[in-house]
Amino acid sequence: MKKFIKILDTLEDNQDTTMLGKMQKKHDAFKILIATMLSARTRDEQSEPAAERLFAVYDTPMKIANAPLPKLEVLVKSTGFYKEKAKRIRMASQQILDRHYGEVPDNMTDLVALEGVGRKTAGCVMVYAFGKHAIPVDTHVHRISNRLGVVSTKTPEQTEMALEKITPKNWWLRVNELLVRHGKTICFPRNPNCPACPVKKYCDYYGDVYKPAHK
Ligand code: SF4
After folding, report:
1. Does the CB atom of residue 205 touch ligand 1 within 6 A?
2. How many CB atoms lie under 10 A from the CB of residue 195?
3. Residue located nearest, by CA, to atom 1 of ligand 1
4. How do residues 90-101 score in pLDDT, each as one tens digit?
5. For position 169, which CATH number holds?
6. Same domain, residue pair 112 and 58
7. What is residue 114's DSSP assignment?
8. pTM confidence score
9. Whose CA is nearest to atom 4 of ligand 1?
10. Which of 67, 124, 173, 186 is in Cβ range 3.0-4.6 Å of 136 for a Cys bridge?
């Protein structure tokens, strides 16, 4: 869809500012997987330091799989649901050792088979760790795609499928970074800053909510 390409093009400035965007190319796939798991339902400001604290002590599947659970819990405590996350990162680390010789798999099927790894996390690993084509859809990507009117979907899974159909492959690796960044800086879940939005002329929400008020 031409409209979506114009939107992506407008948002693109080659500056990666999300946690995963910054980690891309600087960290290995295992750290990107664990950082993504820690970031679920948590702001970057809380999950980033937790990942740093964790990796300063335990930075490989072997080390995390063998770490005492209470120690992991303390290290990731600044993230939401930290007890569950500590358990899951330890179990996923063990599975990576058992099933994949300590290497993070680079495909959706094997990634989603790991404990605590859903399609969004798996997609993030494929994109940010391996540069493989995927469109990870979190709450930002789901919300903004629907506001813009490029999809009309009820769940992130439906959004993922819909975006895959309308997005040329050369844009797949950028969709998550661009829309997540837009969601954190302008298109907030509540009270989006539409007047300052660089893509408002393409946006259905803006057309519906703002334009009538100025007629
Ligand atoms: S115009 Fe408003 S709702 Fe539309 S993308 Fe921009 S910030 Fe979001």
Report:
1. yes
2. 9
3. 200
4. 999 999 999 999
5. 1.10.1670.10
6. yes
7. S
8. 0.92
9. 203
10. 124
